[in-house]
Amino acid sequence: MSTDRLGDLVADITTCRRCPRLVEWREEVARTKVARHRDSVYWGRPVPGFGDPAARVLLVGLAPAAHGANRSGRVFTGDNAGGSGELLFEALYRAGYSSRRRSVWPNDDLRLDDCYIAAVNRCAPPANKPTTEERDNCLPFLERELHLLADVRVILVLGGYAWDAVLRVLAADGHRLRPKPRFGHATEVQVGPYTLVGCYHPSQQNTFTGRLTMAMLDDVLAQARSLAEAADRLD
């Protein structure tokens, strides 16, 4: 029987130095900062997941933002106004998953209910583009997370990069689909014990262009909750 625990996983994530390029980048960003955050003490380390350990819904993003989670130490926390985290937490609040509309720092008493948030890569990457090797170095963390979050039934995947990575993790765990399901917003597919649901990433690139609206984000969170409740009825 495995003795792995979420606390052990968090410790392993936050002390990881496996990818030299990412270590150098995240620490350089933490040293040099940006003018708007010049008085902040940056986290500058890999960022673990957080949320409700009994969650039925797991959200998976791409990686920490250089001056968001790489600064705050919590995924999607501390983004600028209009950033991914601000939009996501607003939607999570409306959906009943988050206790607060905004999250600017990990000590702001925000709590997640029935939801856990993680990322494929745990270090902020240059240009927001991890290499294939850097992705693969991080995937075992996500695999361990899934095993530890025993109540997860729905994985809400933010963007095509995360979609591909989650499918890789599930395939390594014996849940492989052929042909590989294509990513799409609100696409849902059953993979082993999990239902994957696609969602365009709540980045400014998508929200400013109207590719992802708040109504679309609300709808996909409602879809995830409905699927989780349906899975509970079948258990």
How would you portray this structure in words?
- With about 240 residues, this protein is α/β, with parallel strands linked by helices.
- The protein has one domain (about 5-235): 3-Layer(aba) Sandwich (Uracil-DNA Glycosylase, subunit E).
- About 40% of the residues lie in helices and about 10% in strands.
- It has eight helices and six strands, in the order H-H-E-E-H-H-E-H-E-H-E-E-H-H.
- A hairpin with a 2-residue loop joins strand 5 and strand 6.
- It is globular.
- Level-1 CATH class name: Alpha Beta
Give the percentage of residues in beta strands: 5-15%
User: Can you count the helices?
Assistant: 8
Secondary-structure-based class equals alpha/beta
H/E order of the elements? Answer: HHEEHHEHEHEEHH
Shape, principal axes of CA atoms: globular
Quick summary of this structure?
The protein is of the alpha/beta class and 235 residues long. It is 39% helix and 11% strand. It has a single domain (6-234), classed as Uracil-DNA Glycosylase, subunit E.
